[in-house]
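Q: Fold this one first, please.
A: Sequence and structure below.
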Amino acid sequence: MTLALLDYESGSIRLSGQHEEMLVVRDGGVVERIDTIDLGFPVGLVSEITDFVNQTEVKLNPGDGVVLYTDGITEAADLDRNLYGLERLCQVVSQNWHLPADMIRQRVIEDVQQHIGQDTAFLKLVRNTDGQ
């Protein structure tokens, strides 16, 4: 689980929770990967996680953006079991950063669909989150 608090006034985002890396896309499409491995503890493994929870703060500039994603994207496998991967996600986001957020999302979905080919599990996931 990831908790992100966007503070418009200070121009920053605070992140807590161990999940997938957060992607910060700087103006122009340069992607920075923010590691979350030390920011939390998997929920449900122990009853009290207070001692394991940490946070980080990332400064944002005008034109920057943040991408949070599910491991269903990066772990989508083609018929040969090759994973889509984080590098490919970063590349697609960077190449399309000039587009509106819904179009960036659509380009990622299209690229993942191209990667997986005939695998229908991802297509069901996309339809459930896309409302179609």
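Q: Good. Now the second chain.
A: Here it is, same layout.
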Amino acid sequence: MAETEDRGVAIFDLDKTLTIRSSYTPFILFAARRNPARFLYAPGLLGMAVLMLLGIVGRDDVKAAMWRAVIGGMERDKAEALGAQFAKHWARTALRPGTRDALAEHKDAGARLVLASAAVDIVAEPFARLLRFDDVVATRTEWDVSGKATGGFVGLNCYGDEKLVRVKTLLGESAPPRSAAYSDHVTDVPLLTWAHTGYAVNPHRPLAEVAAAHGLIVLDLDAPPNKADAV
């Protein structure tokens, strides 16, 4: 812990913070296109998505159903290879213009970089390696004894309060003095206010509306490289 305090730590959400759009559904489609038989599940998944929009089923239920349909039963090496291929594509095509500069600023200062995301580990981990993160906190894929994906997750979706729990498990109960957290979404307010400095990155409306009340700095990472400024 003392080493982290000396170096500082910067914690970044992934989807719509470092990137311009969420990765989960694009990865599901990316994986399904490489195994077209999985599209047989598409009508049922579309129905669940509609039920989620109507508030009848929860986000976690839809996420789990999509995962079971497309990844369930897949061998671990194949699933991880798909995740790595997708992460390379996503890092090339979906980053906000100011993302690399924001990460480099912390990295050059010697900070420990932590990716904390609801994205699933087989995508989040290779993505983090590509961008030189030191640690990853993500939703964890469950594997059976034969090394195949069960179609479920280990523990809870790494989202909202659960994300902060995971970050505290990694870094300690109290935030390091030189800590910064970055997110676009209001569900990450617990993490943003736990860190010494919280940044609302290109925030969606609910986060933008409460940013000032929580002492958050609003940051635009869609500015040209080297010009990502707090506003």
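Q: Anything worth noting on the second one?
A: The longest strand covers residues 112-120.
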